[in-house]
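Propose amino acids for all 132 sites.
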């Protein structure tokens, strides 16, 4: 019997109660599929290291950087799914050279950053907290 296809999720996707911070990520579909399993990575870290990603075939990453060393040392890694937008936290060129696709999920960011920044500025300049 072959090893299951293992998907690792970064800890910043996990809520205090063990659920995910961003609603249903479809993890139930993974659990229902024979030969597939998922788990949160063992530690919350600003950068994913070879030790953290060892044994995973796929990564679902929100904020942590994926280190070049992690990508180069992994014998199993087949795909990196970056939640949100931007590839700046993943060594895309090296992933491409190694044949590891890198995806992103622009719909994961439900509100544009500019809208959030503008709301914050308006709230602060009009002393919204004091007036509440």
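Proposal:
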């Amino acid at each position: 019997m072959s090893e299951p296809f293992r998907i690792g999720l970064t800890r910043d996707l996990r809520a205090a109660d063990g659920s995910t911070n961003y609603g249903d990520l479809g993890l139930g579909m993974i659990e229902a599929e024979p030969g597939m399993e998922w788990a949160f990575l063992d530690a919350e870290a600003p950068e994913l290291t070879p030790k953290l990603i060892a044994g995973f075939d796929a990564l679902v990453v929100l904020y942590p950087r994926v280190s070049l060393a992690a990508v180069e040392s992994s014998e199993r890694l087949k795909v990196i799914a970056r939640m949100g937008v931007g590839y700046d936290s993943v060594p895309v060129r090296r992933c491409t050279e190694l044949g590891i696709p890198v995806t992103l999920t622009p719909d994961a960011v439900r509100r544009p950053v500019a809208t959030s920044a503008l709301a914050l500025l308006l709230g602060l300049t009009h002393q919204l907290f004091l007036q509440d």
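Strands lie at 5-9, 36-40, 47-48, 58-61, 65-66, 79-83, 102-105. The CA atoms of residues 80 and 102 lie 5 Å apart.
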